[in-house]
Amino acid sequence: MYSRTYKSLVSIPPLFWVGAFLLLPYALMFAHSLWTVREGVIVHQWNWENYKTLFTNPLYAEVLFRTMRIAASVTLCSLLLGYPLAYYLAFHAGARKELLYQLVIVPLWVSYLVRGYAWKTILGSDGVLNAFLQYLHLTHEPVGFFLYSPFAVVLMLTHIYTPFVFLPIYAALEHIPRPLLEASQDLGAGSLQTFWRVILPLSMPGLLAGATFAFVLSLGDFLAPLLVGGPSGTMIANVVQSLFGAAFDWPLGAAISMGILVITISLLFLGEFLEKRWAFK
Amino acid sequence: MKAQLTTRRSPILAIYAALVFAFIYFPIVVLVVYSFNRDGVGGFPPRHLTLSWYTQLFADSSVWDSVLNSLLVATGGVALSLMLGLLAALALDRASFPGKVLFRRLVLLPLILPGIITGLSLLMFAVFAGVQLSLLTVFLGHGTALISVATTELFAGLQKLDRAQEEASLDLGATPWQTFWRITLPNLKLSLIAAGLLIFTLSMDEIAVTFFLIGRDNTLPLEIWGRLRRGITPEINAVSTLIFAVSVALIVIWYHLRSRSLDAPARELFEQP
């Protein structure tokens, strides 16, 4: 139906743009990771030294490990909050469903910074939470460990990614054919059994998609640690950021970025693969 | 039977859901309340409500300069990403070319990859090309990264489109160009507006990519970020409250437009990452 000219006219500009402004920059990052810095100048000398440093210096493994732990905690907490919420909306909310759905997805798109900042004002040593505890005479001194800890990072990121996790789970739950649930009940299964043997397996693709999202997005976050994490909440992307800033070692920073990129893409593929395996046939 | 299944009562679940909602909205409520608190960001209970932080904000010229910068970047970003996103969506919907699957994944990458990766890649590209960092680089960054959102949104719109109309138009002798302007584009109007609103909001709020591409002139989020390092005052609460209100308004409009154009809530974006 569409002529060749039409097809080339619509394909060539985006192909060119994406090639020039996405593919080329990502490729440039890879190239940087194979270069070195000598006396404050980036030297285009191809070598694997940066990757060797990553694998031999235990500092990087340690930060990466901590980052993974934080990302895993965020994923788990978001699932624990997001799944029951999605379940409630899909099966119990009745007429309020549409309104509640909007109430979850609106904050999803709304300012990361605003929400992060709000947590900073709540958790700080002269913040709202501490003032509240002192007001109730539960403590007399401000509690210092709320802010600037891995806990604060997990809390803030869980707050941000719970709606992300909710969305695909809710979509999956909505797509479960209702007669299946009736069949399960008619055949004598209790609600718990129906959940465990029918609903949960059928919502698995949504759950996996949500979990992948939360994990991957937390993994590469550098703003939450800066806002509420403090030194003990430093994550791998902060190391990258400092290598590109004050430390000025772009090649090493690029190598770590490539690491994050590879982990992210592998996880996305793994998630996709598992989703397909669990998909409703 | 069916009624029983869909409206079963479960008080524990209802309370749990209410608590999750409370968790999602609690920080925002605190933010808004303390923007009216005379005595600063902390302290409990908030006493002495005042509008003075807002008056201070309205007199703060560097904030308004940054708002203007953000508006410039977002408007440009919307235009650029919609234009390329529309073409990309048409290409994915109608053309076949080698590497199509790869292209689809590549376009979506900025949506899925951490912002720092996209930001730093573009920074290296700018340095490599010898371009000075400025609002122009921020605009190009936003425009490029948000093609992902434009493409997904417009592709969903195109999938719902009735092709028979375009076929009829071509059969009746209209040129492809006329068909595009008179049939395709008007039919996509709602999707285009909806996508534009979403992209505008995302660009106004963007910080992770902007962080690495910013020159001397700040966007609003970066201006706020800079102030956070110098200590916090309810003035930041006030500006955050306004940002939140405007973003929510835009997102609600986007949601309704999108539901109308697709006859379904906005889910597709997340089902096919």
Plain-language structure description:
The complex is a heterodimer of chains A (281) and B (273). With 281 residues, chain A is an all-alpha fold. Chain A has one domain: Orthogonal Bundle (MetI-like fold), CATH 1.10.3720.10. In chain A, helix 8 packs across helix 9. The radius of gyration of chain A is 23 Å and the shape is globular. Chain B has one domain: MetI-like (MetI-like fold, Orthogonal Bundle). Chain B has 15 helices and no strands. Chains A and B meet through helix 1, helix 3, helix 4, helix 5 and helix 6 of A and helix 1, helix 2, helix 4, helix 5 and helix 6 of B.
Largest sheet of chain A: 2 strands, antiparallel
CATH class of chain B: Mainly Alpha
Radius of gyration of chain B: 23 Å
What is the element string of chain A, with H for helices and E for strands?
Answer: HEEHHHHHHHHHHH
Q: What Rg of chain A do the Cα atoms give?
A: 23 Å
Q: Please, how many helices of chain A?
A: 12
Terminus-to-terminus distance of chain A: 34 Å
Total number of beta strands of chain B: 0
Secondary-structure blueprint:
The complex is a heterodimer of chains A (281) and B (273).
Chain A: H1 4-33, E1 36-38, E2 41-43, H2 49-56, H3 58-91, H4 97-109, H5 112-123, H6 128-135, H7 150-174, H8 178-186, H9 191-219, H10 223-229, H11 236-244, H12 250-278
Antiparallel strand pairs in A: 1-2
Helix pairs in contact in A: 1-12, 2-12, 3-7, 3-9, 4-7, 5-7, 5-10, 7-9, 7-10, 8-9, 9-12, 11-12
Chain B: H1 2-6, H2 11-34, H3 52-58, H4 61-94, H5 100-112, H6 115-128, H7 135-145, H8 147-159, H9 163-171, H10 176-187, H11 189-205, H12 210-213, H13 220-229, H14 234-262, H15 268-271
Helix pairs in contact in B: 2-14, 3-14, 4-7, 4-8, 4-11, 4-13, 5-8, 8-11, 9-10, 11-14
